[in-house]
Amino acid sequence: MQRGAAARDPAKSFLNHKPGIVAAGGTVGARKGKAGGAMKIRAAVLIFLLSGGCAVTPTAPAVDAAAGPCAVNAGGGAPGDWLIGRWSQPHNSLVIRRQGPALVYEWEREPGVMTERWGEKAPARGEGQVTRIAGCSVEMSGAYVWSTTDAIIGREMIYKLALTESTVLQGEWYGAGYSWLRAFWRKVE
User: Fold this and answer.
1) Which pLDDT does position 57 carry in this prediction?
2) 135 in any annotated domain
3) Is the CB of residue 14 less than 8 Å from the CB of residue 21?
4) Which domain holds residue 84?
5) What are the DSSP E strand ranges found in the chain?
6) 113 band by pLDDT with thresholds 50, 70 and 90
7) Are 33 and 123 part of one and the same domain?
8) Looking at the predicted structure, is the pLDDT value of residue 14 above 60?
9) Rounded-to-integer distance, Cα 85 and Cα 81, Å
């Protein structure tokens, strides 16, 4: 567990937990004295890259050619239109919208959420995009972008969901707890 400035600075916390990366000196890769030497990168450049300084514009999701009734709405809608809207579960919301050809999501957890596994969870927000649609199944990936607990900012979020009823998405997701959890979302808009 990190203490002091590194624990409060999410960039330093992220850098310090990766093997081979040292925030203070900016050393990445092999240790000094090892074959190939050490590649030096300024911490500011690395932080810039990790913070989305070279963010990729969202792209259209991969769509399975044999996609089925969910992939294209009646009336010739675009693939994934069935996902667009607001989805909800207790103390969480997930909004999926179209951004050009891409489908992007915004996730938010309200304050005061209690879980048996982790106790009280901090409010948080995540963003990402739909990466694959296959029939009535969808995969999405993104990251935490805000929280009152800086340690989770930048951590990966992955969703693997399937439409099981006309307004229900079920499956699993991977988040800040570094484990796969059950997901259940009901469409409200």
Assistant:
1) 73
2) yes
3) no
4) 62-187
5) 21-22, 27-28, 39-40, 62-63, 85-89, 92-99, 102-109, 113-115, 119-121, 124-134, 137-147, 156-165, 168-174, 180-187
6) confident
7) no
8) no
9) 9
